[in-house]
Specification:
By secondary structure, this protein is α+β, with helices and mostly antiparallel strands. The chain has six helices and 20 strands. The strands form four sheets. Strands 1, 11, 12, 13, 14, 16 and 17 form a seven-stranded mixed beta sheet that branches. Strands 2-3-4-8-7 form a five-stranded antiparallel beta sheet, with no helix packed on it. The protein is globular.
Length: about 375
């Protein structure tokens, strides 16, 4: 039973929105050195464990697969209406179809994702990898545990997962090219979506256009890991890549647009923030966020982000990559409006809120950039 109040639900939604708009910072130097130090005491092929407490808010699906099967047996045929209904049933539906990420929905609708039926069973527990997509900027994997009739549990699949490991072409991913694993909400408690990206725009090596991915995950209470070999091939051969290299300055800040990459399922915008006096980098409360508008005033909705510095002394540029939904049609121009959140002096770190209970932001017009798209192709 959900005991949260409407106000608490609103606060959770606001926090979730802010998290999506805030890049996860990755320190490439520390990660690389930590990997080097650990490799001195372990075998080179030993896997890197990614231990994260995974939580989600889910959309419940209540259609009955048994009823659909009964109708098929009786009629011997499926009408167009019935076919559409069957897609709403978890057994037949795409995991990506029910994701909040509009890019993943587009991958399903346009047939860009690869449907798989790879299954592994240990001690009566079965996991399926059902769907994958790779667009040159991110890898996304849908996994599912088949529902057992009569089984009832409040524990989600994500609650049961304790470890997740990935190998690229049989090798441990170097920490300078791997962003770490992100999770997307899914259609029910028995499925999950995992996403990771390369660090090419933060100084790392890009993923190859085609590779073999090994996914190994551990389920609580089951000793043997579930391992899947998944062939990945990029659908991003026709990605639009723009490198405007536009910069704006205000006070001690220089803000630059390094690159914009448009794929069939992702809009990736890479920005760079530098302090002109090369002093210690600004703190999290002063960090610059951005809103992106097309020429019609539509604002992009962020799904994930990652950021990092090239050195660990705090004085180097902060490079941020934000991912959002794809454009249905290529815009004529994009306007990027940097802003900061405003905070209260007390309690320290709390947001200033407007009359609608939304965090107050302050745009920095001196850093605003408008980029013509068509003229740069």
């Amino acid at each position: 039973m959900n005991t949260r109040s409407k106000q608490e639900d609103k606060e959770v939604d606001q926090l979730e929105k802010i998290i999506r708009e805030t890049p996860v910072e990755v320190d490439l130097v520390n990660r690389t050195m930590s990997k080097y130090e650990s490799s001195r005491d372990t075998k080179p092929s030993e896997k890197i464990r990614t231990r994260k407490k995974l939580r989600q808010r889910v959309i419940m699906i209540t259609a009955s697969a048994a009823m659909i099967f009964s109708l098929i047996i009786v009629t011997g045929l499926i009408s167009p209406t019935m076919a559409a209904t069957m897609k709403e049933v978890p057994l037949f539906s795409s995991i990506f179809k029910f994701a909040r990420d509009l890019g993943l929905q587009a991958a399903d609708e346009k047939g860009l994702s690869t449907k798989l039926n790879t299954s592994v069973t240990h001690e009566g527990f079965t996991l399926n990898v059902t769907e994958v997509v790779y667009d040159g900027t991110r890898v996304v994997i849908g996994i599912e545990r088949p529902h057992k009739e009569g089984e009832s549990s409040n524990e989600t699949l994500l609650d049961r997962i304790s470890d997740i490991d990935f190998l690229l072409n049989g090798k441990v991913m170097d920490p300078t090219i791997f962003s770490g694993t992100l999770m997307h909400p899914t259609k029910d408690n028995n499925s999950a979506i995992f996403e990771f990206a390369d660090m090419k725009n933060q100084g790392g090596e890009p993923f190859p256009k085609q590779f073999n991915l090994t996914l190994s995950t551990t389920i609580k209470g089951i000793s043997e890991p579930f391992t899947f070999d998944i062939p990945m091939k990029s659908i991003g051969d026709n990605n639009v890549i723009l490198q405007p290299k536009l910069s704006r300055q205000h006070n001690n800040i220089q803000f630059s647009i390094d690159q914009i990459e448009l794929t069939p399922i992702t809009t990736l915008i890479t920005t760079r923030t530098a302090l002109l006096d090369k002093s210690i980098m600004i703190g999290s409360q002063e960090r610059i966020h951005i809103k992106v508008f097309d020429e019609q005033g539509h604002v992009l909705q962020w799904s994930s982000g990652i950021g990092g510095r090239e050195t660990n002394d705090g004085s180097s540029d902060f490079i941020s990559g934000l991912r959002s939904e794809p454009f249905e049609t290529l815009p004529k121009a994009l306007t990027i409006k940097p802003y900061i959140y405003l905070y209260n002096e007390y309690p320290k770190g709390s947001f200033k809120m407007d009359e609608n209970g939304e965090p107050i932001i302050q745009y920095i017009p001196e850093l605003e950039v408008t980029i013509p798209i068509n003229s740069q192709q």
